[in-house]
Design a protein that fits this description.
eight-stranded mixed beta sheet; 19 helices; 22 strands; alpha/beta; binds ligand NA7; single chain
């Protein structure tokens, strides 16, 4: 007989970042016996780890905060339109303390394996401190970009100076004045860090393999008066986010690209170039995402902007991407990034011409020559979206390993469940809406849906929920189908599963990692599944009552609105 009353917890949440904090808030509201495990020394996820100079939102701060509590919205003052890492971490701590959530969290707890005990409908989790913890449900709030991927250069261990991946930027300030610094990588992270440190270091050499399209963030402070105005409009702001594809305030320009003259298009683009945040990407014509010719014309417009900002024409040309158009990869937003290359102490090295051959004791050697450095910064990205799953030995029914199931790319039901892995929920899993949306907007949707599913199970006395193979196949096919209209399907980017530092993730074989149909469509579909009694999920009943905070109680839980 199934006896879950002997489990340590009803629910274990893995990850104390943006999703895990909200998830434990809802579980604590329901009085469920639950804990959050995180490998880090404290809460915050992405905002705990990424302490590199220049780390900040590209989302408008007031669209990034949680929307679930009016009181919280009224209490928190976002100081900048695009808030920086220290402030973001303060915010998450403020939320955890305000709702007294820290008591549910266990830090320095790295989950090494999770195994589904079929006889008991229990998950058995092995933690790095030697404990085995059991629970009825596992909720994977592991983040999208939480497994950093340093390069695999020969001799990396020999370097005598300081070197780190941006994710592991030291907690104590790094002395940079007068230092010779190398930055490897020019994605969103590299672009933020380069722009921020250019005038603070002795010498900076940027090792660029491929440039990225990038445009001004146009950040500004938020005064008390402006914050009061934002507070009065929160409801409207979140409504706007809910109806836009990316979950931002930015809505696409619905005029047809080809209905306007070139001059009229440029009027819009001039305006967008000086507008804040992702406007340049998401308020643009929709054809930018789907039509090669429209995309090429706009990319050339941005290329001219780069040429105007970079004094040395040869350097400017190197900063202009040739292998992809604007916006088919995630667009990094920048603050005086291109101007950094006008400084005498900043040099751009094209390592597509002269690749890095090895790391030496004193610096880096390319195929051309050797360079000496005090500090080497690896801004080389992440094993995105599935990496955090692959790093835990997850075994479902019949001992099947999730990492084996996903070796050629993930297949999920709604991005939140995997067939053969019962009671295993992913509020921001691969193929979910969260992965391609303003993250907190996405995870609120995912966490609400997962919590409602749990409440439904508790109400009906179900012990086990598993997505059917057919439902999963349909979802995975739908996700793949959504990619077909998008230019991004061809991109060498983490959205398509590319990462040159992870074996098997080389360019050429697409992984359908994110839901590209837009947030409203995604929310509509997951809501429909719930409204139809969770069609596509098979439930099993057992005789054991559900554990709440150590008590066995009957359940009739209220729903969280989707
Ligand atoms: P990205 O966007 O994956 O960028 C990684 C960068 O590092 C990119 O320019 C890569 O060049 C470069 N890279 C990676 N490995 C190497 C090696 N081995 N040698 C040289 N250059 C390398 O990661 P980010 O951290 O910048 O951004 C990730 C997300 O975080 C971002 O989209 C935001 O959502 C937040 P490549 O393009 O592979 O030639």
């Amino acid at each position: 007989m199934i006896d879950r009353t002997k489990s340590h917890y009803e629910v274990i949440v893995i990850g104390a970042g943006v999703a895990g904090i909200y998830q434990i808030k809802l579980l604590s509201d329901l009085g469920v016996s639950a804990t959050v495990l995180d490998a880090a020394g404290d809460l915050g996820g992405t905002w705990y780890w990424n302490r590199y100079p220049g780390a900040r939102f590209d989302s408008e701060s007031y669209t990034y905060g949680y929307s679930f509590s009016k009181e919280l919205l009224n209490e928190w003052h976002w100081k900048e339109r695009f808030s920086s890492q220290p402030e973001n971490l303060r915010y998450l701590n403020f939320v955890a303390d305000k709702f007294d959530l820290r008591k549910y969290m266990q830090f320095n707890c790295k989950v090494e394996s999770a195994y589904f005990d079929e006889g008991n409908d229990l998950w058995r989790l092995r933690v790095n401190d030697g404990r085995e913890l059991t629970c009825g449900f596992v909720i994977m709030a592991v983040g999208l970009l939480s497994i950093p991927t340093p390069p695999r250069f020969k001799g990396m261990e020999n370097f005598k100076g300081r070197s780190f991946h941006t994710f592991y930027w030291p907690h104590k300030p790094v002395e940079m004045a007068g230092k010779k610094v190398a930055v490897i990588g020019t994605g969103a992270t590299g672009i933020q860090v380069i722009a921020e440190i250019a005038d603070k270091v002795g010498e900076l050499i940027v090792f660029q393999r491929r440039p990225n399209w990038s445009a001004p963030l146009n950040n500004s402070p938020i005064s008390e008066g402006e914050m009061a105005d934002i507070r009065s409009r929160y409801e409207e702001i979140f409504k706007t986010c809910a109806r836009t594809p990316g979950g931002f305030e930015h809505e696409p320009d619905r005029r047809g690209f080809y209905e306007l003259s070139r001059e009229e298009r440029v009027v819009l683009w001039d305006k967008l170039y000086s507008s804040p945040g992702f406007a340049i990407w998401l308020r643009n014509f929709r054809e930018i995402f789907t039509d090669e010719k429209a995309n090429a014309e706009f990319s050339e417009y941005i290329a001219d902007r780069i040429r105007q900002r970079v004094k040395n024409p040869a350097v400017a040309e190197k900063l202009i991407p040739r292998d992809h158009g604007f916006g088919v990869q995630r667009v990094p937003m920048e603050t005086r990034y291109f101007e950094a290359y006008n400084r005498d102490n900043v040099h751009l090295l094209d390592i597509s011409e002269t690749p890095i051959a090895e790391v030496t004791e004193t610096g880096l050697r390319t195929t051309e020559r050797e360079y000496e450095f005090d500090i080497i910064v690896y801004a080389t990205g992440f094993d995105a979206i599935t990496g955090a799953f692959d790093h835990i030995d997850i075994q479902g029914v019949g001992g099947v390993r999730l990492r084996d199931e996903w070796s050629d790319g993930p297949s999920t039901f709604l991005g939140m469940m995997v067939h053969g892995f019962p009671n295993f929920l992913m509020p921001s899993g691969p193929q979910s809406g969260s992965a391609s949306t303003n993250y907190p907007r996405g995870i609120e949707t995912g966490v609400n849906w997962c919590t409602n599913l749990l409440s439904y199970m508790w109400t009906h006395g179900y012990n086990r929920a598993d997505a059917t193979f057919e439902a999963q196949e349909r979802w995975a096919a739908h996700v793949k189908d959504m990619y077909s209209a998008m230019l991004m399907r061809k991109a060498k980017s983490w959205f398509t599963g590319y990462n040159s530092n992870v074996p098997g993730h080389e360019h050429g074989k697409i992984r359908y990692l994110v839901y590209t149909g837009g947030a409203p469509k995604y929310v509509g579909q997951i809501r429909e599944v719930a409204d139809h009694g969770y069609e596509g999920i098979v439930f099993d009943s057992g005789s054991t009552p559900i554990r709440r905070g150590g008590h066995e109680v009957e359940s009739n839980q209220p729903k969280v609105s989707q």
